[in-house]
């Protein structure tokens, strides 16, 4: 396609998703500090200014990644039958989406007041709270029970992603190991 000035232009079918996918690849291999909108534009085969139309800046891109991650987490947790299964799904989500997971829990990387991010975080939080509801009913502090359950799943997922569990797991399925661990902790 040629513009009126004779320059070649390129129309990308879904630039937003292409940039998000390229960003997730960079984060998974090099970390969020390696992100550059200019580099992502090059990878997507578009002008260096094109990503800014969707994300404004690097923080906007990371905010979109965090929001997408919280939506994916909410979907992963939905309809889990009990707390242990929600924990297993949390761990499996982290293993399947390490770049999302890394960005979601670093609030200094994104805009905390972004409406899309806030809505996605609330959906994921509601799913997490739903897993604790029955368990916490007989406790003096249901909120503390929720924090304990989240800490267990999040800590396990973080140790898994940073390869600190490679030897202790010895090739066993992380979800199954977490299920057993949650049973020891929460009955």
Strand/helix succession: HHHHHHHHHH
Query: Which of globular, elongated, flat, extended, rod-shaped describes the shape?
Result: globular
Q: Sheet bearing the most strands, described?
A: none
State the end-to-end CA separation. Answer: 63 Å
Give the C-alpha Rg. 20 Å
The overall average pLDDT, rounded, is 88
Q: In total, how many beta strands?
A: 0
Structural class from helices and strands? mainly alpha
Number of helices: 10
Describe this structure as you would to a colleague.
Helices cover about 70% and strands about 0% of the residues. The protein has ten helices and no strands. Helix 4 crosses helix 6 and helix 5 (about 85-95) packs antiparallel against helix 10.
What's the layout of helices and strands?
Blueprint: H1 15-30, H2 37-44, H3 50-55, H4 58-77, H5 83-96, H6 98-104, H7 115-136, H8 142-161, H9 166-169, H10 174-186
Helix pairs in contact: 1-2, 1-6, 4-5, 4-6, 4-7, 5-8, 5-10, 7-8, 8-10
């Amino acid at each position: 396609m040629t513009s009126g000035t004779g320059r070649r232009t390129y129309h990308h079918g879904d630039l937003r998703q292409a940039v998000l996918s390229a960003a997730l690849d960079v984060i998974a291999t090099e970390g969020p500090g390696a992100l550059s909108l200019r580099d992502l534009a090059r990878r997507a085969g578009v002008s260096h200014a094109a990503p800014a139309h969707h994300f404004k800046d690097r923080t906007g891109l990371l905010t979109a990644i965090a929001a997408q991650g919280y939506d994916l987490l909410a979907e992963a947790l939905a309809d889990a039958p009990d707390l242990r299964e929600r924990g297993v799904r949390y761990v499996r989500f982290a293993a399947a989406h390490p770049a999302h997971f890394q960005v979601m829990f670093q609030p200094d990387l994104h805009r905390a007041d972004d409406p899309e991010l806030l809505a996605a975080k609330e959906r994921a939080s509601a799913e997490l709270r739903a897993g604790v509801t029955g368990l916490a009913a007989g406790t003096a502090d249901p909120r503390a029970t929720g924090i304990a359950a989240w800490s267990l799943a999040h800590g396990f997922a973080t140790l898994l992603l940073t390869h600190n569990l490679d030897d202790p797991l010895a090739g066993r399925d992380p979800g199954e190991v977490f299920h057993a661990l949650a049973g020891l902790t929460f009955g």
